[in-house]
Write a structure and sequence with these properties.
Helices cover 23% and strands 31% of the residues. By secondary structure, the protein is of the alpha/beta class. The chain has a single domain (3-89, 116-176), classed as Dihydrofolate Reductase, subunit A, CATH 3.40.430.10. It has an eight-stranded mixed beta sheet with strand order 5-4-3-6-1-7-10-9, sandwiched between helices. The longest helix is centred in the middle third of the chain and has 12 residues, at 96-107. It binds NADP nicotinamide-adenine-dinucleotide phosphate.
């Protein structure tokens, strides 16, 4: 099992544009073999509360993940879990360690994807991030949600293990070295 930060990212390092816009992600090229393999290996997802609420407000919630191709559980971290029913595939968890542990158990031999800048940074700081996969889109957003780079984020050394260009997209997979 690997913990994988998995995102479509702008050339200037944002995973969402200003006001969390995501209209820039599509229309740049076909999915590469690297992208398909990454998605097929992911058997559980850990995401933050902002991802969850935005996915419901602006998209299809869990049904929108990987274009509807994802069928596994999603563990959403939040200090304020909703009182009512949520999608049965979603489990709210109040701490990241517990969410990662539950996702790891659910994924078994598969991988756990980590969504969003906040969780990517926290996983890096905890030293639990194994891989970073980005689908690099040729756009400069100029603002939004950064994948990485808040004050205090530790330096993370990476080794590029795969690179797959397809039309305008460049898919990159890195292994965390230390
Ligand atoms: N481009 C892509 O491929 C891609 C993929 C995924 C997401 N995104 C984008 O990324 C953005 C969301 O990422 P984000 O970093 O802004 O926010 P996020 O991680 O989705 O949500 C942050 C929230 O999660 C909760 N949280 C975070 N760490 C926690 C912890 N250790 N324990 C308990 N709760 C915790 C807190 O919610 P509470 O306030 O409820 O405690 C926090 O305010 C969205 O715009 C989304 O569309 C892009």
């Amino acid at each position: 099992m690997a913990v994988v930060s998995h995102h479509t990212m702008s050339l200037d390092g944002f995973v969402a544009g200003p006001d969390d816009t995501m209209d820039w992600v599509s229309g740049h090229g076909r999915a590469t073999d690297l992208a398909e393999r990454t998605r097929s290996r992911i058997d559980a997802i850990v995401a933050g509360r902002r991802w969850h609420d935005l996915a419901l407000d602006r998209g299809n919630g869990v049904d929108g993940i990987y274009g509807g191709a994802f069928e596994g559980p999603v563990f959403v971290v939040s200090h304020r879990p909703p009182p009512g029913d949520v999608d049965p595939r979603v489990t709210f968890v109040t701490g990241l360690d517990d969410a990662l542990a539950a996702a790891g158990r659910a994924a078994g031999e598969g991988d756990v994807a980590v969504f969003g800048g906040s969780l990517t940074r926290q996983c890096a700081a905890k030293g639990v991030l194994d891989e970073v996969v980005v689908h690099l889109v040729p756009v400069l957003l100029g603002g939004g949600v950064r994948l990485y780079g808040e004050d205090g984020d530790p330096t993370v050394r990476l080794e590029r293990v795969e690179c797959a260009p397809a039309e305008q997209i460049t898919d990159l997979r890195f292994r965390v070295v230390c």
